[in-house]
TrEMBL record:
Ranges where the record places region Disordered: 1-20
Protein's organism: Amycolatopsis mongoliensis
Database matches in PANTHER family: COENZYME Q8 (PTHR43851:SF3), PTHR43851
Gene Ontology MF term list: ATP binding; protein kinase activity
Biased composition (Basic and acidic residues): 1-14
Alphabetic keyword roster: ATP-binding, Kinase, Nucleotide-binding, Transferase
Name of the protein in its database record: AarF/ABC1/UbiB kinase family protein
Length: 446
């Protein structure tokens, strides 16, 4: 039997040394700046601004995918987090980033079979292969800190085996430190979204992401809570170790494919089920799936939403706070005084702030538009309008947004809701959002 611990085997696909990874990340701002200078030269040579802009965007997106995808780790995790906000980018700039970031959701250079076998031997024991009737060495999918193999468990069940990349912990920490240095650069990719706190949150939660046993516990809790649900499927966990997790294999259509070319019925189905999963989980599991990007969802042949990857969750022992539902209802109904009172009581507005109730209502009310009618059509145009409104530094909404305070305990809820909304807009889905929120969001219907 091959000695899978052979120290001579090294996986070249994942640079592990800090200097090498830093150099790759540093190439992003340098490359983009260099192309911008070259673009001015082309403008002077007679090319139109539109031609130059399109060329620069395509090349920048190509480099973004190449660097983040090759590095995996925190860089790829950041790219996946950015991808759900792609719908906010104006259409004339979005296409190359859409294509590049969609690739990041499901693609990365794989590690070698020998490297994979060595991790399996370390985590499941030297006789790991006896636990499987068969094991496909070719990865079926790649994630930010691991890759997934298709296999058959010894009892005949088809399973997905997620194996963590060696050195993922070191790479994750290095990437996130470097990416925080370049947060202003990445801000341009997602107007209206705060990149710096997103990176800070990813850094804070990375230890959970690296612990596959904790992920397995989360997935078991979700699978138990959604057992028998007609619309949501969470695969059962078969076995787990700190760097390997084995779950039931599920076949379905990835949400990225539905976004790319799904028909109207499938788009609406996917959007409705995604919203129901997002809003119902805090009450049903007291946990919130906190990694909303299309690579973590599939539509099965029997029209269920399959949810995978539970490495990051927010613990909500009391469910979603009731006052968030109350604030949403007040904003929807135009009750500026009551809204202002609740915001101040819950530290969303600092005591010394000079914001007026009408200013705050004008800022928040448009976000409640999806709840004004029984059915709302989530579109990229709507997302772009909201992002443009709050991201325009010349407008009053920009000033109000910068003056509001988001208490740390609400950061995850806010990001996951924004990310899920981004996916709904990518899906171009028309869904009964109001009914879903009325059923599952405490404080909204009262």
């Amino acid at each position: 039997m091959t000695d899978f611990r052979d120290p001579g085997d090294r996986d070249p696909a994942m640079p592990r040394k800090g200097a090498a990874r830093t150099a790759k990340l540093a190439s992003l701002p340098l490359g983009i700046a260099g192309r911008a200078v070259g673009g001015w030269g082309k403008r002077l040579a007679g090319q139109s601004a539109e031609q130059v802009s399109a060329t620069l965007s395509a090349k920048a997106a190509e480099q973004l995918f190449e660097v983040l995808g090759t590095l995996k780790g925190g860089a790829m995790k950041f790219g996946q987090a950015l991808s759900v906000f792609e719908a906010a980018v104006p259409d004339d700039m979005a296409k190359p980033y859409r294509e590049a970031l969609t690739k990041l959701q499901a693609a990365a250079p794989p590690m070698s079979a020998r490297q994979t076998h060595r991790v399996l031997a370390e985590q499941l024991g030297r006789t790991w292969s006896s636990r499987f009737a068969s094991f496909d060495d070719e990865p079926a999918a790649a994630a930010s800190i691991g890759q997934v193999h298709r296999a058959v468990w010894h009892d005949g069940r088809e399973v997905a085996v997620k194996v963590q990349y060696p050195g993922a912990d070191e790479a994750l920490r290095s990437d996130l430190r470097q990416l925080q240095r370049f947060s202003r650069l990445f801000q341009a990719f997602v107007p209206g979204t705060e990149v710096k706190p997103l990176l800070a949150e990813l850094a804070e939660r990375m230890n959970e992401e690296l612990d596959y046993q904790a992920e397995a516990q989360h997935q078991r809790a979700f699978a138990k809570a959604f057992e028998g649900d007609p619309g949501i499927l969470v695969p059962h966990v078969v076995a787990s170790a700190p760097k390997v997790v084995v779950t039931e294999w599920v076949t379905g259509t990835p949400l990225s494919k539905v976004i790319a070319d799904g028909d109207r019925e499938t788009r609406n189905l996917a959007g409705r089920l995604l919203a129901e999963f997002h809003y119902s989980a805090p009450e049903r599991v007291h946990l919130l799936h906190s990694d909303p990007h299309p690579g973590n969802f599939m539509i099965t042949d029997d029209d269920r939403l399959c949810v995978i990857d539970f490495g990051g969750v927010a613990r909500l022992p009391d469910g979603i706070p009731r006052h968030l539902g109350e604030m949403t209802r007040l904003a929807l109904d135009g009750e500026s005084a009551g809204l202002m009172r609740l915001l101040r009581e819950n530290r969303f507005i600092r005591p010394e702030s000079d914001l007026t109730a009408d200013e705050v209502l004008a800022y928040l009310a448009p976000f409640t538009e999806p709840l004004a009618e029984p059915t709302f059509h989530f579109t990229r145009r709507w997302m772009q309008k909201q992002a443009g409104r709050v991201g325009d530094s010349r407008g009053n909404d920009f000033r109000v947004g910068r003056s509001l305070n988001l208490p740390p305990e609400y950061l995850m809820i806010h990001r996951v809701t924004a990310g899920s909304t981004g996916i709904l807009c990518q899906l171009d889905a028309a869904i009964p959002a109001r009914g879903i929120v009325e059923r599952w969001q405490p404080g909204f219907a009262a």
